[in-house]
Amino acid sequence: MPSFRYRALTQFGEIVAGSLVASTQAEAERRISSLHLLPIEAVEEARSASVFRRGFWPNRPSCAEVTSFTRDLALLLKAGARLDDALDLLSGDRDVGRLRPVIRRLRLAVLGGESFTDAVSAQPDLFPSMYGALMKVGEASGTLSQVLEVLAAERDRTEATRRKLSDAMHYPIFVLLAAGCVMLFFILAVLPQFSSVLRDFGGRADPALGFFMEASDLMRANRALLLISGAFVLAGGWWLMRQTKVRASIVAALATLPGIGRIFVFHRTSLFCRNLGLLLGCGVNLTATQRILVDVMSVTSSPAPWIEAADRVRYGGKLSQALAESNVLPPMAVRMLRLGEETGELPVLAGRIAEFYEAKLQRSLDRVLGMVGPAAILTISIVVGGLIVSVMTALLSVTQLVD
Questions:
Q1: 139: domain range?
Q2: Minimal CA–CA distance to 18: which of 53, 55, 54, 43?
Q3: pLDDT tens digits for range 325-346
Q4: Nearest C-alpha neighbor of 300 from the set 148, 152, 158, 132
Q5: CB 330 within 8 A of CB 311
Q6: Which region, left, alpha or beta, applies to residue 62 given φ > 0 means left and ψ of -120 to 50 means alpha?
Q7: Is 58 part of any domain?
Q8: Fewer Cβ atoms within 10 A, N terminus or C terminus of the chain?
Q9: What DSSP character marks residue 188?
């Protein structure tokens, strides 16, 4: 639904401003009046501005701030606070950081007669579909505080796993960048000192050294163009990495690599089973669970097999059979899920499967990290060492000519 920014008069003649979500302008004005305010204007916010905020605005709330808000809201509700009062308290709390304007909008929506589920569902870029589904279950069953507490714990665990993957990728990227910088320094600063001597005295250079000497001359002659191109490549890569479809394509490509692919398979399996156990444990039916998990898992791989599995479940098929035919999870995980279906303990077994594959994920990450660093250092050492030997050989040939 569209969001409206409004200005209104209070009973004391003061002008206040804010925003709320409504289907039409008339509905927005009605909700403003229900807050005992006299509407002055209600203008629909431009969608382009919303897209700008979601994609590029640096003050966009982080996942950690959403998790902190979820945990604090659960604590306030368990302490006996009403939902609107709890949101009012959190809207002034510094711990939620950049989420404070969003919390104010949630409170206005709740005061305007919306359910908390509808209020968070109107912010899909911050609160995913799984968040809204769990809030719906919590409001319907009167266990909103418990659902929020469980959700906060699961978000903490998911973010910890994501940080492990991120840190595991940062280390090899840093090593490769450092190795690249060493190579650039050698090519641009060290090699030209020797290449001029070799050319003046007619020294003989092997094909590899000749290639690097020509590359050095070309790069030094087009220094400005190289810097501008590098800046554009970095900016374009940063923008592409912010696109969900591009990230999913990169992850899918990495998942096909031997060794590294196992890491992404373990992560995908633990994420699916963790969310499956959470949704089913909170009372969401299996069909709705599969529909929500399609959105969650589309980030980890191509969405087509997840949609196919969800369709099979929707038309009466078993979850384990649908996953086996779609071939998106390891056979062992599928067999354990089948056992959970047969025993009626699917939520419990899903959580245990997640823990099992999280342990395998950690072991795989440790093994890969132990190999990437030494391999990168060995490779750059061989390349630089080979170039140094080639330069020294060429210099010796020059010395012989001079003698």
A1: 63-153
A2: 43
A3: 888 888 899 899 899 888 888 8
A4: 158
A5: no
A6: beta
A7: no
A8: C
A9: I
Angle CA(89)–CA(95)–CA(97) in degrees, nearest 5?
100
Domain assignment present for 57: no
Residues 187 and 220 in one domain: yes
Please, are residues 132 and 119 in contact by the beta-carbon 8 Å criterion? no
Task: Look at 129-143, 180-194, 243-257 and tell me which has the smallest mean pLDDT.
Answer: 243-257
Q: What is the pLDDT of residues 44-92, one digit of tens each?
A: 764 433 433 444 444 677 888 888 888 889 888 888 888 888 888 888 7
Burial of 130: CB neighbours in 10 Å, binned 0-12, 13-18, 19+: buried
Residue 101 is part of a domain; what is its CATH number? 1.20.81.30
Q: What is the DSSP string of 191-229?
A: HHHHHHHHHHHT----HHHHHHHHHHHHHHHTHHHHHHH
Report the pLDDT averaged over residues 303-319. 81
Q: Which two tokens stand for residue 135?
A: 């809030």
Give me the amino acid identity at 343: T
Q: Which residues pair with 3 in a beta bridge?
A: 21
Radius of gyration of the chain (CA): 29
Note the pTM of the prediction, 2 decimals.
0.61
Residue type for 90, please?
L
For the beta sheet containing 3-9, the strands, ordered from the edge strand earlier in sequence to the opposite edge, are 15-21, 3-9, 38-44
